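Thread: quick sanity check before group meeting

JM: Hey all, I'm pulling together slides for Thursday and realized we never actually wrote out the predicted structure for the chain we discussed last week. Dropping the sequence here so it's in one place. If anyone has concerns about the input, flag it before I start.
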Amino acid sequence: MKTKAVLRMLGVVAGFVILALCVTDPAWAKVPDQPSDVYVRGYQLMVSRRINNNKLEPAKAYIIKGVGWNPAIKAPTYGPDPFRGALYTLPYGFFLYDPVHNPRAAEVLKYWLEKEHYKNFSPDATMIRRMNANTVRILSVSTDIPMKVLDKFYRKHIMVIMTVALTKSDFDSGKYLQVVNKYKNHPAILMWVIGNGWNADLYGGTMPDRGTAIKYTYDAGLAIKNADNHHPVSTCLSADDMHDFIGMIVVPNIDVIGVNLYRGASFGDFFRVYEQLNSARPFYFCEFGGDSFKVTGYTADAGRAKNCVGAEDQQAQSDFDLGLWRETRPNLSAYDYRKRCLGGLVREYADQVWKVGNYHVGLGGIIDYDHYPTSKAYYIYNPEGFIRPGMPDGTTSEEYFGVVTSDHKAKVVYSALKAFYLTLGAPYIASVTPEAKIGQPFTITGVGFGDTQGQGTVMVGSMLAPVVSWADGSIICTTPNVTKRAHPVVVNAAGTDSNSEKLKVK
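JM (edit): ok, ran it. Output follows.
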């Protein structure tokens, strides 16, 4: 009898534990059926996240810190044939074929990508969250992404920028509105993005001229706004040609400008020039960053880099991406409402081994299609890509841009971004007066301190420094009675510590 009683008691306890998990564990929590509220206020992106019982959290200025995401892994040698059924297979790498060799290649590519959306979203979302990212940009246009994908991102506190159109057919068929109407009520949606560098490639070469592309973008922006009043509309422009870019940012019906920018190890004067334009709209980086393959030699062919030789250098990729993020941080509008930048998305989450030779991304012709399957480019890395003078090695190796490998193993840049993203949103010290005597004032400059001190503090070593004045970008303090040497200075604002910088006390 005692044994049965103990078992009954254990059963009751287990029941309470399971109930508690269902209530408290985000993995068990029900996803709200209403959207989060996202809007532009001045140059800030304000997000009021939808939570339990369909309530909204207070709106906060949002920093986009994330990656572009497609869940694709490298293709197997053979895979299921979507036209004949699961019992049949065909050689994969199919999407590398041009329409002459395989007129149904695009259909098979679509099938494979949709399968990968289903298979890989859960571990991807977990790794992206562990990187301290809060945003992904879904790079494909699809109404077939399962809601469970967005559910997973929501539970991981990851917001989604959803691409709605990449080609003329996405507009003509109304697919862009189908995407909006299907996903607009999901609380993980952050905003919509129209196109991907369309001012440079005219929607993948599907539109005859710039005027047509502008009109399609204008009309789509208006239609999306009429269909959804909870999320901003953005468009993704290429800014490599600054003069061309400046002419494009006036497109109406767009709330936020997205920017693909590849200038090399620095954004140069981009932030300053954008502010001088007096644009009423903020911007974010849809794509930026570098690849992890260092090319030491290649053959030039109509803008392509063929026959590349070199070696992978993951540390160089990490230094490159972090350097660009460090330039971006002082220009974030969440820190300073006068700034224009909302943040950005590093290109990209995973190495895309399928890219080289793919007609869909302009690299067709690199692979010798007529000798398939002797080429192993379908399932191993290929360093070839485009010639791009702004990159450190003068090229972009298209299959090496991921922060994880094609097998989804973390690269060096993943760990670096993990540490950096953790600090974004926290107060940031850019500089401290180099030297000061005890009792003399010293100045801290930076971002994110807050307009008023409130409960904020400044520590010099282990001593509290008396505050003379406090502003969002500058704090003046009196040097406390500490030993005469260099001490770390840390600002705590709104309960969060900044980075530290040294003050030499004389």
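AS: nice. Residues 9-25 have pLDDT under 50 and may be disordered. The longest strand covers residues 496-505.
JM: adding both to the slides.
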